Amino acid sequence: MNWYWQIKIAAIDELLDKQLEKARPYTPDEWGVDKAYQSYQQTYQKATGKAWTPEKFRDEASAWTFYGDDQRTGYITIKNQGQFVKLTTLAGSLKGAMIGLRKLLSENRPVWGMTSAQLVPIFSRVGMVPVDSRTSRCVVNRIQPFYFSSPATISADGAVTINYSDVGAATKYLIVNSQMQSYVNGFSCGNV
């Protein structure tokens, strides 16, 4: 990680601790879906050059819970999946999103998600760590029929490349918190 991100993350860590008490989950209506889409579009266009349409975002966001700072400058979103929680989006200010992520993780629920290589160190600082290649292959093979419209490929370092019909190919890493790691460790993967 370069020095810029190290300094930025250290400053954010200090602020996060002070603002965590104000953070809470928000419904899509409480957060404001149009405002959320603007943050999402700016974040994803900058990072990947691609973003969903406003209609697709609204449709997906209707099943999400938003977590972020009380000023609503940045957020993460989750989708409840029975006993598990899927981290679905990070958008807006990194500070606001990290406040939201810390609030989510303070609930001690099993959380998983997929993120770009750039964000792995940031997620790792708050306890969302990437899994190894074998575990990634095992988990992706189990969830692929439910989440991906085309087959995913997994590289030697555990990176998962998915070809989405609407935004094209994306390479991401499977990340989990400690509660989810306990479940993942119990999966029977056979010879993957």
Could you describe the 3D structure shown?
This protein has 8 helices and 9 strands. The chain has 2 domains: 1-109, no CATH class; 111-192, no CATH class. Helix 1 packs across helix 5 (94-106). The chain has helices at residues 3-19, 28-31, 33-48, 54-61, 94-106, 120-125, 133-147, 178-185, and strands spanning 24-26, 65-68, 74-81, 84-92, 111-115, 129-130, 153-154, 160-164, 168-176. By secondary structure, the chain is of the alpha+beta class. Strand 8 and strand 9 form a beta hairpin.
Name the features.
globular; alpha+beta; 2 domains; nine-stranded mixed β-sheet; 9 strands; 192 residues
Mind summarizing the main beta sheet? 9 strands, mixed
| Percentage of residues in helical conformation | 40-55%
Strand percentage: 15-25%
State the order of secondary-structure elements, H for helix, E for strand: HEHHHEEEHEHEHEEEH
Poorly predicted tracts of residues: none
- Overall tally of structural domains: 2
What is the CA-based Rg, rounded? Answer: 16 Å
What is the first-to-last residue Cα distance?
31 Å
Number of helices: 8
**Average pLDDT score:** 86
Q: How many DSSP E strands?
A: 9
By secondary-structure content and strand pairing, the structural class works out as alpha+beta
Shape: globular
